[in-house]
Amino acid sequence: MQTSRLQVPRPAIDPASDDRAWFLKDSRWEDPVWRFAPTNALEEELPVSLAWDFALQEGRHFTDARYATLRQTCKQLVALIRCRSLCTGLPLRPRSVLNYFFSLRFLVRWMDREGLSRFAELDAAALLQFQHWLAELPTARGPSRSASTVQRHLYLFTYLHRFRMELDDGLGFDPFPGSNHRQAAGDREGLRRPWPSTPDGVAVPLVQAAVDIVMRDAGRVLQAMETYRQAMAATAGRSQGGYAHTGRATRRLKRANSALPEVERPLASVAELVLRIDMLYAACFVVLSYLVGPRVSEILHLKAGCVQERHDSGACVDSPVTVIVGSIFKRQPGYDGRPHEWVAPPVAVQAITVLEALSAEHRMVSGRHELWLRRRRGNGATEWFHARADQLEIASPSRVATQLQRFGARLGLTHQDRPWRLTTHQGRKTFARFAALRDRTCLFALSQHLGHRERAETDHGYVGSDYRLNQEIDAEILQQSMAAWEHMLSAPGLGGRAGIEIVAKRPRFRGSRLKQDLKSYARLLVDAGLVLGVCDWGFCVYREEHSACLGNAAGPNPARREPSTCARCRNFVVSPQHRTYWLEQARRCESLLNEPALPRQTLRIVRERLNEAHTLLRTLDAGSAEENSHA
């Protein structure tokens, strides 16, 4: 029986070295280039290495003899960081260590420039000088570095201070007395997450297109791929060039396509097949990332047969729950990570089925089970032409990112009149934001994807047991609540019964500190425990005793929360940003009233909805006019 590797296997120790280099592979402590032993399957394909011979001023290099003492301390520091994270106490994975090495390289270059040869020579003034130098260094994205970037570099000083007793040359002073590296960098509210979620205007067409490809287009692509395989196999023994093989395959694809003249988006050439296979891989990633929520490393490590069913014997109805079985690697020391299961909506199950079909031949050739096995060079259909086991590897995150960007360009995705750049992290962020919105329409869509019978079930348990994802969702809820309060405190006019109350009681913010005062007051309201619901048609300043949706102490009732119920609720607020929704609501109602065959009861309901929309729009207009007259 095959056993799981719970720890990174230590390579055999060279007699000339010692056990301190246990985390290296095919390299030694004294070598100018360190190659880290892989800690998961992705790192087997893309080993992490760092070079100690980086350039310094006046043509010198860090491997020169004059830097031997400092270099030894730097290697000790990197080894300690690899073995023990200050945050978790667990070993860090090589890619995280590489980021600290980059920060260390910045510090060494600055010390060489200032004539400093030991960390012990640093003091508070030197730390401040380094911070200013670092902040003013130009980057590819702008003339200076952001506070969040600077604070990541400053965290290295915390390691230098905490590990000072284990280093030959540690930091002799507390770099951040009474504060931390975030505050020292000027990031008063902690790290502002640099990874954005995908805006709604981009995410909706993106997910719709991905679902359409996975559910409808995948069968045609896989069939065309099989036609290509057969054509290439038929010419395998002939001494013709690659172009002749491709031409023969193209002719066979055209013949197969002519037999189905009604098919949309035909596959009539090998070039089109190559593109469509890459788009199919991108669509599968989008479906899994945006509708299930794993990280990119967790998606790329999925294996054939990962879709399974679970039966809950304690449930009232013994209906199986379909899950995707995989592993979480973040903050997990083991090679195989921590086993985890994600609830799988039907479209995600279909995406796994498609990936199993795409990888079937590669898995057979290599004897491996990963779903994202791809040829190292060559995309699309050409992957299956004389593929060998040594040419196959798990697709890297950068390769997936490139496919996502091509996918977005093909769909013409834009945000604020500019092309939107898709990245591998956005799906998980968007999933967290989507769940955090607690919007009735969003919850309905999510419940459909998760196969829940009730939206309340989705609202109660949409994140499963993923603690880190729970944290991200809580952070999104906090951010959205603060943004909503800032908007309500500064909007020229508000509609809804609670909106009128807020306008009457809110303080007036003026002067040069207006934005800061608004943010501080909004944070005060959030910290006071005011539950705030956010949806497409307005805000809910929730108070249980006034709840028209019959909510409880925890918050609004998601099963009864809808525009008409909210419109008559004392907790409801409409701001100018919701004006478009209510204009469209009025337009739809007016269109329905022009239907001659509409039943009388339906007409009565439509007129009520139209009056609700007009009332809210008039309140918004009146508030804006009053604000303008005061101005």
TrEMBL record:
Keywords: DNA recombination. GO terms for molecular function: DNA binding. One of its GO terms (biological process) is DNA integration. It comes from the Bacteria. Gene3D superfamilies: Intergrase catalytic core. This is Integrase. It comes from Roseateles aquatilis.
